Every structure is written in structure tokens, then in C-alpha cells.
Amino acid sequence: GNSVTQMEGPVTLSEEAFLTINCTYTATGYPSLFWYVQYPGEGLQLLLKATKADDKGSNKGFEATYRKETTSFHLEKGSVQVSDSAVYFCAPGGEYGNKLVFGAGTILRVKS
Amino acid sequence: DGGITQSPKYLFRKEGQNVTLSCEQNLNHDAMYWYRQDPGQGLRLIYYSQIVNDFQKGDIAEGYSVSREKKESFPLTVTSAQKNPTAFYLCASSRRKSLQETQYFGPGTRLLVL
After folding, report:
1. B77 and B71 in contact (C-beta within 8 Å)?
2. Distance of CA A5 to the CA centre of its chain
3. Does A105 contact B42 at a Cβ distance shorter than 8 Å?
4. Helix or strand or coil: residue A35?
5. How far is CA A107 from the centre of its chain?
């Protein structure tokens, strides 16, 4: 089945710092790859996705590139804001009915 | 606006009591899911349903039950057999049960034991 290893947190950054959250996965077939974000007290929402190798997903200044050769989907943002403070989950999808597996989540705290 | 609603936001359970968490979606999605989230952990799948009147167990189904009598609704019952029910419960849906599809989440229900 699928599995995912996500960078442990919490990650604490100052406003306008550069962010990287690492994610590597194992999966059969050619999965779509997702980053979800969870703001305090809320459910998850899709941040970005990529559906095939070398695709770059982007949204709200966040980016992640589907690297099939390294089975990675690292999340980056050039300049974080206090409002980006949340928990970020990496999740590889999959074919043939594999369960969607979420990483443990990385807490991001951005200080002003 | 289309989306997923969960109620109540907070739910308190007494010992030996069954409680039911509501999940409704108006996205016309075929697939629905229930997840449990414990502090500092990822999401674990409890049950999922691909279509009306059909559902399958996830990784941690013991002590839980579900029904899918309508496309829009997927209630979760936490039974007295679930010995450690305190958690944040998230309902989600997707257009179909393909893991290439985006899942849309509700705001969650926090269950606490009295």
C-alpha cells in the first residue's frame, strides 16, 4: 500500500522567511499527489495537487513539484505570512482502490 | 454554496452511550469518508462509502458503525464498544472513489467523553 514520510514539526519561522516542508512517498502506479492544509479548529482543505511526473502544483504562493525519480513532493513558499500558520498534510493518492494515506502533518508557526 | 456540513461541532458522550455524528454534502459526490484525528497524528480512515447502500471498513472500524441511505448523508455512530472515542472526527467526500480525486472535508466534530 501507499505510505508517506513527512517532515516532523513544529516548524517555526519568522514572517517573510522561506519555507520547505519535505515529503517522500511510496505508492504503486502513478498517483496524484496532494498537499492539504488544516487551520486551527477546522477541517482539511486542498492546498495544491499534481497529477503526473514533473507537474508543479501551486496555490496561494505555495508550490510543490512531482518528482517521480526521488518519489518526493516537497512544499515550498518563498515568503511566509502569519496567516500561513497551520498544519500541512502530504498525501499520495493511488490507483486501484488504494487508501488515501495522510502524513502525520507538519505544524507551521509563523511569528511576526 | 456547495459543501460539507458536520454537526454538532462539539459532542459529549457518557459511559455506555452511543452517539451519532452527522455529515451532509450537497456536492453530488458519490464517495464519502469518515476519518479520526488524534492530537499530533495524521488522519486514520474509519469507514468509506462509494455509493448509496454500500460501505466498507477502513483501518479502525471497530466500535463504529455507519449507514448510507441517501447520497447526501453519511452518519457515523460511535458505539459503547469504542473505548477511547475522544478525538476530532472529520467527514469528507469526493466526486468518485478514486484516489486521484480531491477530497473535500467538513469542519469536523470534536467528541469528548464525560
Report:
1. no
2. 11
3. yes
4. strand
5. 11
CA distance B90 to B41: 13
Q: What φ, ψ does residue A83 adopt, rounded to 5°?
A: -70, -10
Distance, in Å, from the CA atom of B62 to the CA atom of B87, rounded to the nearest integer, reads 15
Query: A83: helix, coil or strand?
Result: helix
Chain-chain contact of B42 with A45 (C-beta, under 8 angstroms): no
User: What CA–CA distance (Å, rounded) separates A19 from A11?
Assistant: 9
**Residue B102 carries which side chain, given as an amino acid letter?**
T
pLDDT in tens, chain A (112 residues): 678 899 888 999 999 999 999 999 887 777 889 999 999 888 999 999 998 899 999 999 999 999 989 999 999 999 999 999 999 999 887 654 556 788 889 999 999 9
Q: Are A74 and A4 in contact (CB under 8 A)?
A: no
User: Which chain B residues are Cβ-neighbours of A32 within 8 angstroms?
Assistant: 99-100
The owner of cell 469536523 is B108
* Chain B CA closest to residue A47: B102
Whether B102 contacts chain A with CB within 8 A: yes
